[in-house]
């Protein structure tokens, strides 16, 4: 007999003392075989006010467990400054909500997680160390990782199943076999967790190939497969690491999308066959993801596959069963029906929670408010341009400015540009450079000035979050040349586009015809609710609503609408600020009820 608890049964038992253990054949809850049916979601991608709703949605679909990534750089945004208490940083509140809803929890805390999140969750302040190595026994990386793990363990320890909480297992690193082969590193991470009182079982997660499992698995840790979708996958893992359970730690109902691509829409019929295989064979699994949420602010990551640099869109809808706004999709209904068919006789799943209300917002005419050129910071001098991190900046933009001496026209090349730039000579827009397309040079025309002024406004987009190119500093990371001559003596202007920077913008119209404009609007609504702001009339930039950074947009698509949770809007007066790198004329933005 295998224990397949429906959520209602779990709710009756959640606050009682439980035991969770591993046998070679599977997992045991209170001494009875237990099939984990987990739906992953990430607290950092969901407003805290919506956590309970999303957890209830997973529960009503048939999940008995929630899986979460914890993003190190979300909880330690600046070295030594931790946040586990404000808004959706409050992990204890999320975990309590999981337990209140009668669910169990799988924790995937990093220090590296991937997740299409900036730098895979590793804090970019570490990149200020010029020669640092990540995800290995580099003592500088490990010192920071140990401090993080020690601090996070204090948050998690009260919620372990051994202490009456819902946390069943904790993952060691993530997909390490796709990156490195330092077994000492994985063993040390496990040791740090144990030294800090984490006494629940551990697991690893890797692709189902011999080299990934050999490099990424640990003796005594359950083997997670990303994904485990066939008998051969499970047989391989059992052979590579015998004596421990094997489960599918990432079963994919959807997939990620990069800027310039079509929306990812994987085949649902093949996915449902995978779920039927897992259910029929009583294999535990974690849906990655049951609900994706949103890459608000500057949190979206990037890949570096065969196409080069591939930045992720702001939406993390992921074509998941629960969409970005929290609504059930056709895929959700199919899963609910399939998983529900395996419940014990007489048991049924909870009703699907009511949707969070969405609203339409009438056209909002934006007005030119000011220019980035009228809101520059005090510059610092730099003989050659450096990356953001060398100027103690993690996100946003930097303006690099110099005078052309010697060569004053010809081929300008930026090596290596990370990631997008607009180029100006004597205030005139010359063109843009785009790492995504491999465009790192353009032609500088002849100027009438004796010493033309060159300005390069660089946007740092998402840091690479997977595979060998993980160290991805932003800005101009090497040098700038004109006809092969290295350009020297730069002025550097930090433009972090932080909350404080946006709040302190000064209204101005001194540069009305120069690209790099802030638009602004005050708009009124009769009722607050979730909405998707249609930014199809804009080109490339960022949107803030009532001080909340909704994320990036880009005219290349496919995303043309940005999700705004209703809890960030208010009945009556609201404010929108837009920064656009390319747009000069004031656009109109509307609010829609859906992404498309």
- Intertermini distance: 46 Å
CATH architecture of the largest domain: Alpha-Beta Barrel
- As a whole number of angstroms, the C-alpha radius of gyration is 25 Å
Structural class, judged by helices and strands?
Answer: alpha+beta
Shape: globular
Can you list the strand order of the major beta sheet?
4-5-6-7-8-9-10-11
The number of helices is 11
CATH superfamily of the largest domain: Glycosidases
What does this structure look like?
The chain is an alpha+beta fold. It folds into three domains: 7-340, Glycosidases (TIM Barrel); 361-369 and 505-592, Jelly Rolls (Sandwich); 376-495, Jelly Rolls (Sandwich). 18% of the residues lie in helices and 28% in strands. The chain contains eleven helices and 32 strands. The strands form seven sheets. An eight-stranded parallel β-barrel has the order 4-5-6-7-8-9-10-11, surrounded by five helices. Strands 16-25-17-22-19-20 form a six-stranded antiparallel beta sheet, with no helix packed on it. The protein has a five-stranded antiparallel beta sheet with strand order 15-26-31-28-29, with no helix packed on it. Helix 9 runs parallel beside helix 10. The longest helix has 18 residues, at 139-156. The radius of gyration is 25 Å and the shape is globular. The two termini are 46 Å apart.
Topology summary:
Layout: H1 7-13, E1 20-23, E2 26-29, E3 32-34, E4 37-40, H2 51-61, E5 65-69, H3 72-75, H4 91-100, E6 104-108, H5 139-156, E7 167-171, H6 183-195, E8 202-206, H7 210-216, E9 222-225, H8 231-240, E10 246-251, H9 268-280, E11 285-287, E12 302-303, E13 310-311, H10 330-340, E14 361-365, E15 367-371, E16 380-382, E17 396-403, E18 410-418, E19 420-425, E20 428-434, E21 441-444, E22 453-460, E23 475-482, E24 485-486, E25 490-495, H11 499-503, E26 517-525, E27 531-534, E28 540-545, E29 548-554, E30 561-564, E31 572-580, E32 588-592
Helix pairs in contact: 9-10
């Amino acid at each position: 007999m295998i224990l397949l608890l429906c959520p209602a049964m779990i709710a009756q038992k959640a606050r009682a003392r439980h035991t969770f253990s591993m046998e070679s054949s599977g997992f045991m809850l209170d001494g009875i075989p237990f099939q984990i049916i987990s739906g992953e979601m990430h607290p950092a991608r969901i407003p805290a006010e919506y956590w309970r709703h999303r957890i209830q949605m997973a529960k009503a679909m048939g999940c008995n467990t929630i899986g979460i990534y914890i993003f190190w750089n979300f909880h330690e945004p600046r070295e030594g400054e931790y946040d586990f208490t404000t808004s959706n940083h409050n992990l204890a509140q999320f975990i309590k909500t999981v337990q209140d809803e009668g669910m169990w929890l799988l924790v995937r805390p990093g220090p590296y997680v991937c997740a299409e999140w900036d730098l895979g969750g590793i804090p970019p302040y570490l990149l200020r160390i010029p020669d640092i190595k990540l995800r290995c026994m580099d003592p500088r990386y490990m010192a920071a990782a140990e401090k993080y793990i020690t601090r996070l363990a204090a948050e998690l320890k009260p919620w372990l199943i051994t202490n009456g909480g819902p946390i069943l297992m904790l993952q060691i690193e993530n997909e390490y076999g796709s990156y490195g082969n330092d077994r000492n590193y994985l063993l040390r991470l496990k040791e740090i967790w144990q030294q800090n009182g984490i006494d629940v079982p551990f697991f690893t997660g890797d692709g189902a190939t011999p080299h990934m499992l050999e490099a990424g698995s640990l003796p005594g840790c359950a083997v997670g497969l990303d994904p485990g979708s066939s008998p051969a996958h499970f047989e391989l893992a059992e052979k590579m690491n015998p004596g421990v359970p094997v489960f599918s730690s990432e079963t994919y109902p959807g997939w990620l999308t990069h800027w310039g691509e079509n929306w990812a829409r994987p085949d649902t019929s093949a996915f449902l066959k995978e779920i039927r295989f897992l259910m029929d064979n009583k294999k535990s699994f974690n849906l990655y993801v049951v609900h994706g949420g949103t890459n608000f602010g500057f949190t979206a990551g990037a890949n570096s596959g065969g196409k080069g640099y591939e930045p992720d869109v702001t939406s993390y809808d992921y074509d998941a069963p629960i969409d970005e706004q929290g609504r059930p999709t056709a895929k959700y209904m199919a899963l609910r029906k399939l998983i529900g068919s395996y419940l014990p006789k007489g048991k049924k799943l909870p009703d699907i929670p009511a949707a969070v209300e969405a609203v339409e917002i009438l056209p909002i005419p934006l007005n030119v408010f000011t220019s980035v050129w009228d809101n520059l910071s005090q510059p610092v001098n730099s003989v050659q341009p450096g990356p953001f991190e060398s100027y103690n900046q993690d996100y946003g933009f930097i303006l690099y400015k110099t005078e052309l001496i010697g060569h004053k026209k010809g081929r300008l090349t930026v090596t290596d540009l990370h990631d997008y730039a607009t180029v100006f000579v004597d205030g005139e827009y010359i063109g843009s450079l785009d790492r995504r397309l491999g465009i790192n040079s353009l032609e500088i025309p002849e100027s009438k000035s004796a010493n033309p002024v060159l300005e390069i406004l660089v946007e740092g987009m998402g840091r690479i979050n997977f595979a060998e190119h993980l160290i991805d500093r932003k800005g101009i990371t090497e040098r700038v040349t004109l006809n092969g001559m290295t350009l020297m003596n730069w002025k550097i202007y930090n433009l972090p586009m932080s909350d404080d920077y946006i709040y302190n913008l000064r209204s101005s119209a001194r540069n009305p015809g120069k690209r790099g404009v802030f638009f602004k609007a005050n708009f009124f609504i009769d009722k607050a609710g979730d909405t998707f702001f249609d930014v199809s009339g804009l080109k490339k930039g960022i949107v803030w609503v009532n001080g909340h950074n909704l994320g990036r947009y880009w005219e290349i698509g496919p995303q043309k609408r940005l999700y705004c949770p209703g809890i960030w809007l208010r009945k009556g007066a609201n404010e929108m600020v837009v920064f656009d790198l390319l747009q000069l004329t004031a656009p109109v933005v509307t609010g829609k009820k859906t992404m498309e």
